[in-house]
Amino acid sequence: MDGIINILKPPEMTSFDVVSALRGILKTKKIGHTGTLDPMVSGVLPVCIGKATKAVELLIEKGKTYRCEITLGVTTDTQDSFGKILEIKKVNVSKKKIAEDIMSFEGQYNQIPPMYSAKKINGKKLYQLARAGLEIERESVSVTIKKIGIIEFFGDDKVLFDVECTKGTFIRSLCEDIGIKLGTGAHMSFLLRTQSGSFNIHDTVTIQQVAESMKNGIVNDILIPTDTIFKDYPKIILDQNQMLKYKNGMTMVLMNCYDTDEGFLAIDKSLMRVYELHTDLFIGLGEISIGNEIVYIKTKKFF
């Protein structure tokens, strides 16, 4: 069983809990998720099965989109509604000012990872230190907020908005940073991941649906082929001799290969989907390298 299942993670389950449940349902040990979601957060969680687990590190790099509710005037130690309230302030800011300050975070900015997170420092997860009552200095990380779209205001202190961001962005920290800029304090009161890379919430399935599909012997119907996630990469087809070189990690001149998509632009370090002639099976990813005006391809990831 190889492929990806686009799971709708329910709240109050960790990402590890989801993987553990699916491991039992699918009766396989080779399984992994593509980006941790906090227990309170629901939404898109692509889970790789079998050979597709080799794609986990590539999928983690993809951007994410969230629907978030921020509550102004209340600061918590976890930056969300599950934490201990540290401070309460009256919100006396116009909606125009609130919108302007939220939108001002579009672009690149330096964000300090929250103590209550799975990020590791010196081999220890930050939330483990936080639960022990410790707080350590964390270096800021450059993140990019690609787009923010405000959806609705609820009263004077709550705003619902969509945010598209790069990997490694903490939306809880974004909410707290917005509150600091407004001078009101704030925390994240709701979060739903609506997209992860090419995986959208409209195409998700629940753990219960996976179990039902497995029971009825139709689990392949919800398995997404591994090469689907690389559909934006150009395709190359290798014959038997070329495939042998590819599997052995040898570099080949691209123009000598059997067939490629026409008209694609060869860029150094860019990737291609590799398929086997006659069977048209997806084999893996090749990486382009350019030297002396010659375009080469070499093995990047073998599935």
Short descriptors:
Pseudouridine synthase; 7 helices; 303 residues; 9-stranded mixed beta sheet; globular; Archaeosine Trna-guanine Transglycosylase, Chain: A, domain 4; alpha+beta; 6-stranded mixed beta sheet
Q: Between the first and last Cα atoms, what is the distance in angstroms?
A: 13 Å
- How would you spell out the order of helices and strands? EHEEHEEEHEEEHEEHEEHEHEEEEE
- What name does CATH use for the topology of the largest domain? Pseudouridine synthase
Averaging pLDDT over every residue, what do you get?
Answer: 88
**Do you know the CATH architecture of the largest domain?**
2-Layer Sandwich
Q: Determine the strand fraction and express it as a percent band.
A: 35-45%
Continuous helix count: 7
Major sheet attributes:
9 strands, mixed
Outline the fold blueprint.
Elements: E1 3-9, H1 15-26, E2 31-33, E3 42-49, H2 56-60, E4 64-72, E5 74-76, E6 85-88, H3 95-103, E7 107-111, E8 120-121, E9 124-125, H4 126-131, E10 141-154, E11 158-165, H5 171-182, E12 186-196, E13 199-200, H6 207-215, E14 235-238, H7 240-247, E15 252-253, E16 259-260, E17 271-276, E18 282-291, E19 294-302
